[in-house]
């Protein structure tokens, strides 16, 4: 396939997936380790870890579809 715009969609899809995976692992791992080591965590930390988990899942799930399928088709 010819690249007209110069964007590397496969690299963007991989980078987005691994960024989402990293956010997901940091969010879930921190919550599990935090509860195991300290028992109860403050509410703002629970909210932060939950938000990292949800945002990481959303980025990791949507990035391959957006940059791997949709964007190359619209070019």
Automatic annotation (TrEMBL):
Protein name: Major facilitator superfamily (MFS) profile domain-containing protein
Keywords: Membrane, Transmembrane, Transmembrane helix
A family per Pfam: DUF7860
Parts of the chain that traverse the membrane: 12-36, 48-70
